[in-house]
Write a sequence for this structure.
């Protein structure tokens, strides 16, 4: 249990006992007992609900990407936002929001200190725009591997367990699989020295084929090379009117979970009942739990129907509800 959650539970329990003591002077009987029960229930419901979950909830920085790109938020404030606005104790950074700071130890030191100040764990860095680890050109692939070294080092300094990378490339599925296996294995060798995992998200193209990506990860032979199963990134080909080729998300998540070192709760569209319209969270969380996973699940809201703030809150509420029911 998070330290702040424990303190909040303790204070609320104290409040409940205080109310019980006060009500005791008012008399006894059914009404007093009912009031006491209501007071206890109201004081502990929210905190206890979070405590009962079999996984921890984190926040992916991409959930606020529009606001960050607009310059309305500062990357240094991300941990504070996660804790104070959403009461979330784990964060997943996106390298695009501090792209030129990977080797700036003063800046990284400030990020680390602010996370500690708000009792927030830095979990991983999502790395983009550093080259394709599945590039079929050997020289380009090796350059991409080396481009990621600085992010492994940054992740280590911040206290993260992983960096999320891309296994994209041009060529046949077999050609890209061979290249991605080599690129990921090479980067994982470097990551192993720092005790950092190299994880791949289903992120479009071949990587959204669960069987393909699971095969690539297994072929690396590296125990620190794994997956970041995303609830929603299973479009393999885009067309003019949206996705032209979709991989079955439930099959894909099932195939990726044996290698999972993190999980991403992607959300786009919510109905009036609070459920995600495209992903059955109950079904997915059962797959996740059945795989033996009890780590962090990161909120990654990408929709437009709700504001980023509302989308994050809706996703958290759904995770808590579905998580308790599946548990």
């Amino acid at each position: 249990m998070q330290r702040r959650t424990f303190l909040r539970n303790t204070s609320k329990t104290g409040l409940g006992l205080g109310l019980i003591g006060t009500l005791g002077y008012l008399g006894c009987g059914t009404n007093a007992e009912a009031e006491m029960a209501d007071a206890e229930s109201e004081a502990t419901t929210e905190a206890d609900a979070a405590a009962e979950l079999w996984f921890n909830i984190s926040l992916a920085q991409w959930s606020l990407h529009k606001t960050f790109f607009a310059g309305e938020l500062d990357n240094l404030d991300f941990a504070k936002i996660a804790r104070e606005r959403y009461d979330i104790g784990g964060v997943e950074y996106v390298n695009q929001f501090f792209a030129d700071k990977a080797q700036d130890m003063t800046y990284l030191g400030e990020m680390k200190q602010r996370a500690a100040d708000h009792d927030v764990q830095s979990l991983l860095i999502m790395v983009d725009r550093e080259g394709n680890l599945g590039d079929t050109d050997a020289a380009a692939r090796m350059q991409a591997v080396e481009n990621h070294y600085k992010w492994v080092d940054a992740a280590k300094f911040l206290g993260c367990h992983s960096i999320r990378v891309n296994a994209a490339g041009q060529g046949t599925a077999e050609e890209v699989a061979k290249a991605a296996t080599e690129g990921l294995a090479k980067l994982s060798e470097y990551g192993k020295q720092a005790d950092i995992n190299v994880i791949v998200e289903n992120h479009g193209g071949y990587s959204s084929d669960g069987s393909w990506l699971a095969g690539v990860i297994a072929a690396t032979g590296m125990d620190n090379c794994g997956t970041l199963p995303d609830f929603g990134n299973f479009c393999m080909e885009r067309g003019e009117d949206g996705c032209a080729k979709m991989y079955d998300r439930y099959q894909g998540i099932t195939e990726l979970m044996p290698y999972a070192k993190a999980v991403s709760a992607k959300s786009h569209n919510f109905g009036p009942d609070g459920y995600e319209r495209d992903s059955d969270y109950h079904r997915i969380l059962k797959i996740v739990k059945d795989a033996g996973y009890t780590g962090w699940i990161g909120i990654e809201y990408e929709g437009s129907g709700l504001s980023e703030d509302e989308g994050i809150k809706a996703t958290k509420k759904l995770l808590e509800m579905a998580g308790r029911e599946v548990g």
About this structure: Residues 3-24 form the longest helix (22 residues). Residues 135 and 169 are 4 Å apart (CA to CA). The two ends are 17 Å apart (CA to CA).
